[in-house]
Amino acid sequence: NEVFIVVYARINRYLIEYKNVVYDGTNCRLYHRKKAIQMCKPYLKSLIGICMSTSLDECIDRNFKRDRNVPEDVIKTMYKSLHANPPKAYDGFEQILIF
Description:
Layout: H1 2-16, H2 30-40, E1 48-51, H3 56-64, H4 72-84, E2 95-98
Parallel strand pairs: 1-2
């Protein structure tokens, strides 16, 4: 929760200053995704979601190659959560790009 407090404060500050913001977050939990969208909406002309359709095996493989690893069970939980609640237009996005 402490990380999200800092992230939301920075996003808010940059939006107030009319700076471009790229929020790179997994947002596998619908609650966090909606909170970020609600916070940003008043400052934006449009909101585009970008979703990477990476397989679970690829996520685990890439994680293994990183200097700092995330526990595999955390990756699996996040992956399942994101697939159970993928980004949708009704979340507040004008467009969702899937790669």
